[in-house]
């Protein structure tokens, strides 16, 4: 059974992995990212947990079935920023590790990119030192003639 086969028949659209889902709650809209996988987590997100996250500035990110997140509310697929924003990829500044740590921790960090940048810096400094040494050796040879 594919993810949400029976669920998507009663709600609009057929969500695809990566779709933004806008869920209409009584006093606000809740947003979810559709992953297209069926995972169960223990317990449902309660309104008390949502209210607590507003005041603590921490949120609980859970992977749940779309039907469990939506419950009796309505939803729509709304990829409203697709024509405005584009995710750029940069091996050293915005790679896949940056992306997943940004989603999980709120900060895009990549240890492997930091190591690569350090290595590039070291090689550049070493090459500069060798060039400078060669320049001084050539200068001293010219003075002897």
What characteristics describe this protein?
single chain, endopeptidase fold (from Nostoc punctiforme), 3-stranded antiparallel β-sheet, elongated
Helix/strand order, N-terminal first: HEEHHEHH
CATH class of the largest domain: Alpha Beta
First-residue to last-residue Cα separation: 86 Å
CATH topology of the largest domain: endopeptidase fold (from Nostoc punctiforme)
Q: What's the gyration radius in Å? A: 26 Å
CATH architecture of the largest domain: Alpha-Beta Complex
Number of strands: 3
| Main pleated-sheet profile | 3 strands, antiparallel
Shape: elongated
Domain count: 2
Count, helices: 5
Strand content: 5-15%
**Structural class designation:** mainly alpha
Low-confidence region ranges: 1-10, 38-46
CATH 4th-level superfamily of the largest domain: endopeptidase domain like (from Nostoc punctiforme)
Adjacency order of strands in the biggest sheet: 2-1-3
Q: What share of the residues lie within helices?
A: 40-55%
Mean pLDDT: 79
